[in-house]
Amino acid sequence: MRFAGKCVVVTGAASGIGRATALLFAREGAHVFAADLDLAGAKSVAAEGENITAVACDVCDVAQIKALMDQAAAAHGGIDVVFNNAGAAGDRAPIDEIEAAGWDRTMDLLLRSVAMGIRYAVPHMKQRPGANIVNTSSIAAVGPGYSPTAYAVAKAGVLHLTKCTATELAPHGIRVNAVQPGFINTNIFTSALEMPADMVDQAKAMIMQVSSHAQPVSRAGMPDDIANAVAFLASDAGSFMTGASLIVDGGITVGPRHSWDPEAPGMFDALQAMAEGAVPGTGQ
Ligand SMILES: NC(=O)c1ccc[n+]([C@@H]2O[C@H](COP(=O)([O-])OP(=O)(O)OC[C@H]3O[C@@H](n4cnc5c(N)ncnc54)[C@H](O)[C@@H]3O)[C@@H](O)[C@H]2O)c1
Q1: 187 lines ligand 1 (CB under 6 A)
Q2: Of 22-36, 74-88, 175-189, 261-275, where does mean pLDDT reach its minimum?
Q3: 84 lines ligand 1 (CB under 6 A)
Q4: Helix 149-169 vs helix 113-121: angle between axes, to the nearest 10 degrees?
Q5: Which residues contact 200 (CB under 8 A, 6 or more apart)?
């Protein structure tokens, strides 16, 4: 019961990582405000746990973020933990095709939303011992290759925002950290492709299969993997951490594929095979 009596706000709580984290906070005693664009989804999460209040909130609308934080604070005299997590794939157009409006929408959804979440939560967190914020970044912030460019740039911005606000809020005793999920089996992929509902189960089974072999830890990443990391950062066990980011990715960013996958030989393996008389390019 690490969060007994704490007031916790989670955005993007109707699905995936946000849902798992909201339920974990609730299981450990928190009063959770489960906010999402998808109010029906947030309500069904509220029905799954105790002390969860579903709130309709579009994190692209600053007035709705303020209303969310004010509602949570009014109910419990302040806010203890905020998990700024809502998100989606954003504009996936390549850099030589993306329009300014699509770029801006992606930044509003993934970066401005986090800044404004902090902006409107902090006035309610200043007098709360142990108050802290966790922001969802991504391994896409590590470098290219994991996501479209606009998404990756926004998620890198979330890391920098985390560090800057950790220093700004230190005098108030408020910690700010980030989590960087790897490939996690949620609806984010099928939603990005706007897949018809009757294909989603099949697609998720395929994601499960592919993501089981995408990194050194040979299983799919699941929402609870991230929820556990967020809860650690938000709990007293993380009380010496601020401005930090936890990469939770099954090791996908640790090194090139050949360093952990025997089926993917690297340059040295190729040269050794050549030295042993193999014919380059034939596999013999
Ligand atoms: N799944 C992954 O592999 C992965 C990897 C790295 C980072 N992330 C990040 O994790 C976070 C959660 O994503 P997920 O994978 O759980 O996806 P998800 O699609 O399962 O959940 C995202 C939730 O955010 C909500 N949402 C979307 N736009 C919103 C808005 N404008 N206002 C309020 N709510 C909104 C959706 O309704 C949904 O409930 C996102 O920030 C995402 O970028 C996911």
Answers
A1: yes
A2: 261-275
A3: no
A4: 20
A5: 187, 190
Extended strands (E) in 25-129: 31-36, 52-56, 81-84
Which pair of tokens denotes residue 212?
A: 């089981």
CATH number of the 7-253 domain:
3.40.50.720
| CA-based nearest residue to 29, from 55, 7, 9 | 7
Q: Distance, CA 136 to ligand 1 centroid (Å)?
A: 9
Contact 256, 53 (CB under 8 A): no
| Nearest by Cα to 125 from 68, 83, 170, 78 | 78
Measure CA 72 to chain center: 21
Residue 274 has pLDDT above 90, yes or no: no
Task: Check: CB of residue 66 under 8 Å from CB of residue 101.
Answer: no
- HSE at residue 145, side-chain half, CA atoms within 13 A, is 8
- Taking only the tens place, the pLDDT of each residue in 228-269 is 999 999 999 999 999 999 999 999 999 999 999 988 988 888
Residues 179-205 pLDDT 10s: 999 999 999 999 999 889 899 889 989
Around Cβ 203, how many Cβ atoms within 10 Å? 15
Long-range contacts of 143-146 (CB under 8 A, 24+ apart): none
Q: What is the pLDDT of residue 279?
A: 63
Question: Is residue 109 in contact with ligand 1, taking CB distance under 6 Å?
Answer: yes
Instruction: Using alpha carbons, list the distances in angstroms from residue 114 to 25, 26, 200.
Output: 20, 22, 29
Which stretches of 85-158 are assigned E, i.e. beta strand? Answer: 132-136
For residue 266, report the phi and psi dihedrals to the nearest 5 degrees.
-95, -175
One-letter identity of residue 86: A
